[in-house]
Design a protein that fits this description.
The chain has about 190 residues and is of the alpha/beta class. It has one domain: Maf protein (Alpha-Beta Complex). The chain is built from six helices and seven strands. Strands 1, 2, 3, 4, 5, 6 and 7 form a seven-stranded mixed β-sheet that branches. The termini are close together. The N terminus is likely disordered.
Length: about 190
């Protein structure tokens, strides 16, 4: 963190989470967890992201350290839209999101002083109607392939969004207000 004896450890390979933390005065040490992100049968999105955040934290952060992990999914009509990985899957996801409101569900786990807390942040995002040409052009950039729901609100998809109800940073990948609240509740010093 910006000051104090504890150094925040970010259990994530996401450059977006690291950028968000740095923008708020943190200078975390990054450790990349290797966790199977496959949903369990019947697992709802909130349970999934909270479980994965806890697993990522446990995989690379010792209980005596100050650590943070997160996971994010996009949910539409009860379906989890993960990272598409392939252009045709990204196109399908963006066509489904076009003109609709979906939910971004972010799981968070924080540990400090031998204690761990976790939680979930939900944000509703509305897209305008998207044309096939603009979807194709966006997918061709490659940006959607490693993003939950096939888009980056802070990137090329910024113009797709007509409304955000809740924490915008959660859509990017990490709710900073939730992080600060968790650190405070555990007695850790924060950057603010």
């Amino acid at each position: 963190m910006a000051s104090g004896a504890q150094r925040l450890i970010l259990a994530s390979s996401s450059p977006r989470r690291l950028d968000l933390l740095r923008a708020h005065g943190f200078s975390p040490k990054v450790r990349r967890p290797d966790v199977d992100e496959t949903p369990e049968p019947g697992e709802d999105p909130a349970a999934l992201v909270e479980r994965l955040a806890m697993a990522k934290l446990a995989a690379v952060v010792d209980s005596h350290e100050t650590g943070l992990a997160a996971d994010t999914v996009v949910v539409l009509d009860g379906d989890i839209l993960g990272k598409p990985g392939r252009p045709d899957w990204a196109t399908d996801m963006l066509q489904r999101l076009s003109g609709r409101t979906h939910e971004v569900v972010g799981g968070l786990a924080v540990c400090h002083g031998g204690y761990t807390i976790s939680g979930v942040v939900r944000t509703r995002v509305t897209f305008r109607e998207l044309g096939d040409d603009e979807i194709d052009a966006y997918v061709a950039t490659g940006e959607p392939l490693d993003k939950a729901g096939a888009y980056a609100i802070q990137g090329g998809a910024a113009g797709f969004v007509t409304g955000v109800d809740g924490c915008r940073e959660n859509v990017v990948g990490l709710s900073i207000p939730a992080v600060l609240a968790a650190l405070k509740s555990l007695g850790a010093q924060s950057a603010s």
